[in-house]
Amino acid sequence: MRKSILVAVAVSIAVPVLAAPPGSAQNFLDRANRLKGKGPFALMDSDYGRLKAEATAVGKSIGDERRAAERAGKPVLHCSPTPRAQLGSFEFIDGLEAIPAVERVRMSLRDAMLRILQKKYPCRR
């Protein structure tokens, strides 16, 4: 009995350590997949708005960085026809899933989105 309680406590302590850190690409993908499982009811989930806001903020940040680099005459990190690159939600999720899980866990959402944009809009150098 005591042994099973100790095992339960040890597992409950270890599980949060194994979860992807907030702000990581893996955390975003886990939350998006949870919502995908809800089907059309996902739109009513409060996490839907948070995920959309996170992705929009990261996309805006990347677009702002691109505009700043263009004004400063520095190289841009992705070469979409316009600073505001087009990336659909399913396209973004598919791009996240294409990144190996080992990298996704340690990668920020910004770095993951930038990688997806670089693959979609490569620069000729």
From TrEMBL:
Keywords: Signal
Top-rank taxon: Bacteria
Signal peptide location: 1-19
Protein name: Rap1a immunity protein domain-containing protein
Lineage: Bacteria, Pseudomonadati, Pseudomonadota, Alphaproteobacteria, Sphingomonadales
